[in-house]
Design brief:
By secondary structure, the protein is an alpha+beta fold. It is built from 28 helices and 34 strands. A hairpin with a 3-residue loop joins strand 28 and strand 29. Bound molecules: flavin-adenine dinucleotide.
Length: 872
């Protein structure tokens, strides 16, 4: 049994000079190291985190030709990929498996699309003419064909074939585990003498004049740095490639590296046998069956942040689920609560046209061909960068890189053999026969466990089973929901350089890639690991904490509940609501408001603590407070954060504009199924009751005059308001009417209006309703970037009372005295002797005029139905 101890590797570093140093332990770096070692070079490879933990572990797990690149007429890339597809299947048969794809094509006018795909698949077959040059006939890939809709209905009853005109069937390959396949290549390099280290960051280049002759490596486990000499250095750092180039050359690369983000979501199975490619406008997504689940992927958006920070935000997740639910040709809908795991990664894409701006750049259509840069002309002789490409083509990219390395070393390159040399564990002629023979050889182990072990280790299964036989505990599955056994954990630590819990959960095994395996499984794994690594309880605790954040059970949603809303009913119903919410959208963290202002503080603290979605549960006041908590110093705390509501108030004015249902169950159902879209907010500067200038955001309506006086009166009927908002509002209004005197106010509305008016009420509206159901601004849209300003001048009290019913029905706007403006900025000052002109902001009275109202278009992400579908 070969063991690879990190300590031995470190010792070898100081004493040896290498022909080649590879920076980056993704599949590109790994393939370069494997190829170079197989051609006789002395190689060291350094990986800053764990092997295949970045882009290479975040792929769709496909070994494929890339049908869509054919649509972009990248014939060379597709041919290269199809050739490499065959090679991977041949050299790693235990872990690369054939996957049937359905391509459903619509009816009607989509004839052109059908013709295009049919021709495309024909070309795909031609370009893979050698696809079945394999030793295992079970791995053969048939030519594409039409598949009958009846057959699809029988095999995939969840698919709705009514909308299909026809469907095409073709095949590609899928990796059981990209991380393991990468490891199998790396292990081969190590077995042939390569020095390989994870958690080893290259922090500096060594140079002799303009020649790069080594690197400084930092051991991230203990902070020790060491100089390592090498004749040639290959930068294979994927999304970090430009940073390493800048470190070496002191300048940004001439052709920018653009990072395109893609996310994947693992959910309950939508299909069982077939993968489905769903084409869309300028995009597509896959539904891929993988280990009993559906892997949904992927997105393609230019990413501007640091590659160190990439993660899947709640907003992206919800938006992607909505794309899938709209496009998936079946009845099944994926709710947030169906998600068991998700991950994101960055495609490094080399810019082709430096004059193109980031906005113009279309990452989806950008070529996936790889690039090799020789940095001699940048004053860095001996430094080569290999970047871009696909998992599938990484072996071939490495071949070209190693040819170049030999050129730099001044030697003739020996023949590359990586296309015919099986990876470690891959010396298997016929996979099914091999699995059968192992099942027979190990009758004490359940057949599905043995089969799974073959997928992991191929011919090295015997080493793992030997461990399991030494200790019965190691022969047991880690938990009921997984086939992995304890021996795999020990093997990962002893033989596969796993040093952290995350290495074992996500890369040496698939245990974590299928979602959280449960507390006791995690404890079992950390116990086994800590025993092997001689670590204490603190270590175990730290490791558990570090992985928790990766799982969907890690709540990213924070709920601010006002238990007093709806006459204390919200608090009483909360346990039931929470249970249903959990089922629909996954785990949530909850806090209750106790006094006015708590909503702001709770939401703000949650966002600062990293929660990404905040749900306000309560009435319009709670909604307003929570929205205000999204801001600090007038900036969003997290621009990616998402706001959502469960409206349990009595007035529900904001919910009415949204046409948000009243029934709690329906609201939760909506919440689970809707996407995210940007909501405008109003930003209000005014004087609070201490006379201080204050800023407050509003989602719905801010008004002043009679409405402010009414609100103050209504809020004095607190108990009644909780039970019957409409009656409380009516009483409050009557009370206000008796005392309110029309006020002279100077109104400035954009550049359209500037005058002093006697006013009854002026409403600056983002939403449509106020005052517990008055349809004051029936034309307002919450995402059009405009306010509707409704000016009700100083009409008599009698006139007002005669028209109240029209305000409820929204038919008051044609009253000759009412004026309506569309505006983005409104300023209001009390004119002479106006006295206190009270404001009403989303149903609360926070202060008085003077005030400035400004629209903030698309200010916040809100999780509701898109307005075109549902809103007035
Ligand atoms: C969403 C998505 C889906 C994809 N799906 C597929 C697919 O189905 N099939 C396919 O063929 N291709 C797919 N690809 C493409 C494929 O994943 C990539 O081409 C491939 O993984 C790139 O590997 P890499 O080694 O260049 O980068 P990475 O895997 O990112 O490796 C670079 C490594 O360098 C390390 N590093 C950085 N700086 C340093 C330093 N200073 N010192 C030491 N190490 C350092 C990083 O930690 C990292 O591990 C997909 C890509 C994405 C993003």
């Amino acid at each position: 049994m070969t063991t690879f101890a990190r300590s031995n590797m470190w010792e070898r570093l100081g004493s040896e000079e290498f022909d080649l140093i590879v920076i980056g332990g993704g599949i590109v770096g790994v393939c370069v190291a494997r190829d170079a070692v197989l051609r006789g070079l002395k190689v060291a490879l350094f990986e800053r985190r764990d092997f295949a933990s970045a882009t290479s572990g975040a792929s769709s797990k496909l070994i494929h030709g890339g049908l869509r690149y054919l649509m972009n007429l990248e014939i060379g890339l597709v041919r290269e990929s199809l050739r490499e597809r065959r090679i991977w299947s041949q050299i790693a048969p235990h872990t690369v498996h054939s996957l049937p794809f359905l391509l459903p094509l619509g009816g009607g006018k989509k004839f052109r699309e059908r013709l295009l795909y049919s021709l495309g698949l024909r070309a795909y077959d031609w370009l893979s003419y050698d696809r079945n040059k394999l030793t295992d006939p079970e791995k053969f890939i048939p030519a594409h064909k039409k598949i009958s809709l009846n057959q699809i209905s029988e095999e995939e009853p969840t698919l709705n074939t009514e909308n299909f005109k026809e469907a095409l069937l073709f095949h590609d390959y899928q990796m059981f585990s990209p991380e393991r396949l990468s490891w199998a290549c790396l292990k081969q390099a190590m077995m042939r003498g390569a020095v390989v280290l994870n958690y080893a960051e290259v922090v500096e280049f060594l140079r002799d004049g303009n020649k790069i002759n080594g690197v400084i490596v930092k051991n991230l486990e203990d902070g020790v740095e060491i100089q390592v000499k090498g004749k040639v250095v290959v930068n294979a750092t994927g999304p970090w490639a430009d940073q390493l180039i800048a470190l070496a050359t002191g300048k940004e690369p001439e052709r920018k590296i653009i990072r395109s983000k893609g996310i994947h979501v693992l959910t309950k199975p939508l299909t069982h046998k077939y993968a489905i490619a769903v084409p869309g406008k300028g995009t597509h997504f896959f539904v891929l069956p993988w280990l009993g689940y559906s892997l949904l992927g992927t997105t393609d958006t230019v990413y501007q942040g640091s590659p160190d920070d990439v993660h899947v935000s709640e907003k992206e997740l919800v938006e992607f689920l909505s794309v899938v639910n709209n496009g998936f040709p079946g009845n099944a809908k994926v709710k947030r609560g169906d998600v068991v795991f998700f991950y994101g990664g960055l495609r490094p894409i080399v810019e082709k046209d430096p004059t193109e701006t980031d906005e113009e750049f279309n990452s989806y259509n950008a070529s996936r061909s790889a690039e090799i840069f020789d940095h001699e002309q940048d004053g860095c002789l001996g430094l080569i960068t290999a970047v871009g490409g696909k998992w599938t083509t990484s072996r071939h990219l490495a071949e070209r890189v190693v040819d170049k390395v030999f050129e730099k070393l001044g030697h003739t390159a020996p023949q590359c053999t990586t296309d015919t040399t099986p990876v470690v564990g891959g010396e298997i002629e016929r996979l099914s026969e091999f699995i059968e023979s192992k099942i027979e050889q190990y009758p004490d182990f359940p057949p599905e466990v043995v089969k799974n072990l073959v997928y992991y280790y191929g011919t090295e299964i015997d080493e793992v089973i030997a461990l399991a036989k030494q200790d019965p505990i190691l022969a047991e599955p880690i938990c009921d929901s997984r086939k992995e056994i304890g021996a795999q954990i020990v093997y990962a630590v002893r033989n596969e350089m796993a040093v952290h819990l995350s290495d074992v959960l996500f890369r040496r095994t698939n245990i974590g890639n299928l979602g959280e395996p449960g507390e006791s499984a995690i404890r079992k794994i950390t116990d086994l690991m800590s025993h092997e690594l001689a670590r204490d309880d603190n270590w175990k605790e730290r490791e558990r904490k570090a992985v928790k954040i990766k799982f969907v059970s890690w709540a990213r949603t924070y709920v601010v509940v006002n238990p007093r809303a709806w006459g204390n009913m919200t608090g009483k119903l909360w346990p039931d609501i929470e249970k249903k919410l959990h089922q629909a959208i996954g785990p949530v963290k909850v806090s209750f408001t106790e006094k006015p202002g708590d909503g702001i503080e709770l939401a703000r603290r949650a966002l600062l603590d990293g929660y990404e979605q905040i749900i306000a549960v309560g009435g319009d006041g709670t909604i307003n407070e929570v929205v205000n908590g999204f801001f600090m110093d007038e900036r969003l705390i997290n621009p990616e954060s998402v706001f959502a509501i469960i409206s349990t108030g009595t007035g529900r004015d904001f919910a009415k504009t949204l046409k948000w249902p009243q029934e709690i169950d329906e609201q939760i159902e909506h919440l689970a199924n809707t996407s995210v879209f940007p909501l405008d907010l109003g930003k209000l500067r005014f004087l609070n009751f201490n006379g201080e200038e204050t800023t407050r955001y509003f989602v719905n309506i801010a008004s002043f005059g009679l409405s402010g006086a009414t609100d103050r009166a209504v809020n004095s009927y607190l108990r009644l308001k909780q039970y019957n908002g409409k009656v409380a509002f009516f009483l409050g209004m009557l009370q206000a009417l008796l005392t309110y005197k029309n006020k002279p106010v100077r109104l400035k509305i954009d550049n359209q209006f500037d005058d002093v008016l006697e006013i009854k009420t002026v409403a600056v509206c983002n939403g449509q309703y106020f005052g517990s159901g008055m349809h004051i601004s029936p034309n307002s849209q919450i995402n059009d970037g405009w306010f509707d300003v409704i000016v009700i001048p100083g009409i008599t009290t009698l006139e007002l009372l005669m028209n109240v019913s029209k305000v409820y029905s929204g038919t008051h706007l044609n009253h000759p005295k009412i004026r309506v403006f569309r505006a983005q900025k409104v300023m209001a000052y009390p004119a002479h002797k106006a006295g206190e002109v009270l404001l009403d902001v989303d149903g609360e009275v926070p202060g008085y005029l003077p005030a400035t109202f400004e629209i903030v278009p698309q200010a916040i992400n809100v999780r509701i139905q898109p307005p075109s579908d549902e809103l007035d």
